[in-house]
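Z., the sequence and structure:
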Amino acid sequence: MMKHTFIILTASMLALSGCSSDVPEIVANINRMQVPVVMAPAATAKEDEYTNSQLYQANVEEIHKIAGQIKTKYLLGVDQKEIFDDHSVSHQVYRSLTKLEDAERVNEFYYKEHNSTGLKRLNDMLKPVNKQT
């Protein structure tokens, strides 16, 4: 009985490890990143409006650059079945693209709310990821 359990367990582990793919480092890093949630300050000085605009635009550019590069590098010629396979690289890439879309929406919200702290933290989060591309 114990021997059968061991064999079944070993076979299951081998099957599961055979399904996993090596996820590219940039995709894994995007999937692990936490989009910062920062409350807006009570009031923003006029000088900060220019800085906010620059940070907002820099964030948009970073997000689009990262998304474009991982789409080009990992999604050209992908089979549709791979997209829905939780263990495939393609599925992980789509998860990271969703995370980048979330970051883009948060960026827009921070800009509309004049939240310079949120824009800066988002920019700080994106810079290391963009250096990997």
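The chain has one domain: 23-132. The two ends are 52 Å apart (CA to CA).

Let me know what you think.
H.
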